[in-house]
Amino acid sequence: MILAGGKVYPSAEQSRILAQLPERINETRAAQSLPCETVIDALDRMSRRIADGAFDAMLDDTMLRSQVQYAAKQLTRDALVYKVRTELGADWEAPVTSEQITVQMLPLGVILHIAAGNMDALPAWSVIEGLLTGNINLLKLPQADKGLTIQFFQALIEESPELRDFIYVFDTPSKDITGMQALAAVSDGIAVWGGDAAVGAVRQLAPIGCKLIEWGHRLGFCYISGTPSDAELTALASHILETRQLLCSSCQVIYLDTDDREQVTAFSERFLPYLEAVALQFPVTDPGAAAELTLRRYTEQLEAVIAGIPAKSRVFQGKFCSVTVCEDRDLELSGMYGNVLVKPLPRNELMRTLRRSKDYLQTAGLICADADRDALTDLLFRCGVNRVLPPGEMSAAFPGEPHDGDYPLRRYTRIVTKRSRPE
Amino acid sequence: MADTRQKLFLTKNPFDLTGTEPLFVRAMRENTAYHLAHCPEYRKIADAAGFSADQVQGIADLDKIPVLPTVLFKRHRLYSMPERRMAVRATSHGTKGKFSRIGLDWGSISAGFWMVLRMAKTRGLLSLRPVNYIILGYKPHRGNEMAVMKTAYGSTFLAPALHRTYALQFKDGGYVPDLEGVLQTLLRYAKQPHPVRFMGFPSYTWFLLQMLEQREIRVSLPPGSFIMLGGGWKQFYRERVEKETLYRLIQERLGVEESHIVEFFGAVEHPILYTDCPAHHFHVPVYSRVIIRDVRTLKPLPHGEMGLVNLLTPMIRAVPVTSVMTDDLGILHDGQECPCGCQAPWLEIIGRVGQRDIKTCAAGAADYLKGGTP
Question: Which of A22, A35, A74, B179 is most buried, with most CB under 10 Å away?
Fold first, then answer.
């Protein structure tokens, strides 16, 4: 399905709509502007409809009622005003003049959003950020989208018909290169969410000069120096299981500030019961995920036997979870779903190790003595980490929080200047 | 001793699992002994597990045989005889250049010949009446060692071929699909009195049927025509259709009854020809056994429970594929659960291991919208 000008069309009409797209966009750019207030007002009304259950039938069962309420809260006037003010400043739409030079923040223009399919609300959220900054938004739906996004935007346009010419949704498959190129060709910026493959594909696709706004994969870790308390270990275990290690901010690797393998093994043995206690409350029952991990480990084991080397890791298996003691220091994806890696990493090796993974850094949990906290936090920032938090808050969200070291709304705008006419 | 294998593959009733049990166990014992003696890597794996061939004394001992994941054949060349002694080499049509290299020895070729005849007979595919073939797959080409191509080509000998046409043509160093060409040939075949046989990927069959539907074309293929499906859905999961829809379309657009639609299942690492029964279930034939294993512990599971699919056969000596673990998840059902009357248990493939792509840096967006925990 395709959404254009507030109307829904079948996918088969894509070529016709794409052919008319440049001209339609030019007309909108020439004659219309989208004030932030209009968008906030429309979203605020939508938030009430979401809270009242207007979309519940479309949501899959895994999405809890509390999460729907949370999503609704993010779209209220208060939350949106706070976000816009934090990221762009108050009165950001107003021009500023100093010594006859006027500077003004304007929308980037046309933004193509290529959203990942694994979060129901992500495609819509990406477009909302584009709308708040007054842009014309072209959304390429992920294949997994079951119609929720189009339904949401149709309802939003009902609330506020002025938004009609600022939202286009396409279900073009990524493999349709011609279609994707047509979308990229009219865009001033491309916001892409996804893994290395998705980001790489967009770099191939984007016209030179088109601004790339990449929200790629990240790998989270927890750094532990000294002996953690029971409460800290419980908080870390809860974080690991509650996020299923699926978020960019989720902890994949626990690094210990030591070079002593015995200590790494001792820690792993101590941590397993904490992890298991939480795992039994939130068991991961998906057999496909468990099977993949089992098969991967089994293959590694056989390969070690063939190569005649001892296994490079040792697994402490718990119920619905595991802790793997590793010899290496690489920041890597764990088995996820409660299967965490533990590695030695003395602090004097932090910089060298983390720089090797510089493109994947985002969140670090930090457990250490109070006296060390400032120094270690500073060191982690210098390595390239953007968020340093207590283990239980690694994936927590804060209003107006930057994303991957950036305020997203700023990336969806541009700044223009003009000389004021002499008096 | 090689006779045990040949005897097993000469069995008249391909679903007499109980009657052939001692033969199967003996053939498995001989086969593992052969690989232990000829494949050093296999030997190392067996030694590490404390396995020796004489441990295989009864059907209950089959789960002790070292299980090799199919991915191992993609990363390593595991051979039990030099390549020059192999009769045929075949590769899986894996994506991204990763494929298994499997060889067949002469003994397995002759065993396989009997197997194909027996299995084809169960669905009435053996015929002396000449037919026209539409291969919705690869046209043979020097250098193409893909097993699916060989199977498809091989299937055109079950009944004498008048003519063969291929959906994937080799052009300028690569394969390109030509469904339009196939459609034109189909219209020509439909006017002839000879039966037509389709063989190939279900996804291409589906695309072709969609073309017929869009152009509002219906043909009525001559009696005795068959639609054979095999080779999996591969990259076309998005177009995956319910079997019932596919059968209905075949009946509607090609005029072929459901009883004349036959699906095959097999893997390059387990080249046993599974042929579905009239109820479209894959009963385990005498040449093969299936063990479903727990997704966490790899322990064997009873019938009716879902787990990793472990396939066993004594067919091949060239490579140690005696017991392989696929990356499929499946269930083994009791034979009685199928209305067709065949007592052999049947294998249902549920899906593939793995999870959805790691949730992307959705830290911000996900948390804003979903409250922090997905």
Answer: A74
Class of the B3-112+276-352 domain? alpha beta
**Are B360 and A216 an interchain contact pair (Cβ–Cβ within 8 Å)?**
yes
Q: What is the pLDDT of residues B230-288, one digit of tens each?
A: 765 443 444 455 677 888 899 999 999 999 999 888 788 898 989 999 988 999 999 99
Q: Tell me whether residue A24 is in a domain.
A: yes
Residues B8-45 pLDDT 10s: 999 999 999 999 999 999 999 999 999 999 999 999 99
Q: Cα-flanking dihedrals φ and ψ of residue A18, to 5°?
A: -65, -35
Domain boundaries, chain B: 3-112+276-352, 124-265
d(CA A407, CA B104): 60
User: Quick one: how far is CA A55 from the chain centroid?
Assistant: 23
The tally of domains found in chain A comes to: 2
Q: Tell me if B49 sits within 8 A of A306, measured CB to CB.
A: no
| Residue B362 banded pLDDT, cuts 50, 70, 90 | very low
- In CATH, what number is assigned to the domain containing residue A370? 3.40.309.10
CA distance B68 to chain A (A): 8
Q: How many CB pairs under 8 A join A and B?
A: 181
Tell me the ipTM for this assembly: 0.84
Kindly report, residue by residue over A69-97, the tens digit of the pLDDT. Answer: 777 888 999 999 999 999 999 888 899 98
- Domain span at residue A327 reads 220-393
Does any domain span residue A235?
A: yes
Contact B351 A286 (CB under 8 A): no
Answer yes or no: do A294 and A172 share one domain.
Answer: no
Would the CATH topology of B3-112+276-352 be identical to that of B124-265? yes
B297: chain A residues, CB-CB within 8 Å? 294
CB-nearest partner of A247 from B238, B352, B363 = B363
Distance CA(A250)–CA(B41), nearest Å, equals 38
**Around A419, how many Cα atoms within 13 Å sit in the side-chain half-sphere?**
3
- Using the Cα atoms of residue B92, residue B182, residue B278 and residue B315 in order, give the sign of their dihedral: negative
Domain B124-265: assigned CATH number: 3.40.50
Interface membership of A408 toward B (CB under 8 Å): yes
Region A109-114 average pLDDT = 96
User: Which residues, listed in sequence order, are joined to residue A169 by a DSSP beta bridge?
Assistant: A3, A139
